[in-house]
Amino acid sequence: MSIVTLRRGDDATRTVTVTLNALPVDLETAQQVTFTAKRQLVDDDEDAALRFDLSDGLSLEGNVATITFPAAIMAGLEAPAILPFDVEVVDVEGLTATVAEGYLRIEPDVTREAVVGS
Question: What are the structural domains of the chain?
């Protein structure tokens, strides 16, 4: 399991590289790829603190999934916080596999509003 640190209110991107038996897995053929982070594991998926899929915040290239965390969404998270997460893939045959899991550590921000220009 990995620990990924993000800061509340910041834009961020993180990548997940997927292999099976040391060989790359072509994610571009997947039916669905979903990143989910929850406050508690028992929370329903629709109540997740963060949830991204191919339509909003998750992109694929070969065996790499890139997850984009927009500042506007990150600003709404409580911090400090530790959120369990996973990345789940549904392949072309409809088989589901968790390809990454761990914890998001959400660090508080000092500046709550960005100042643009001066």
Answer: 2-107 (2.60.40.10)
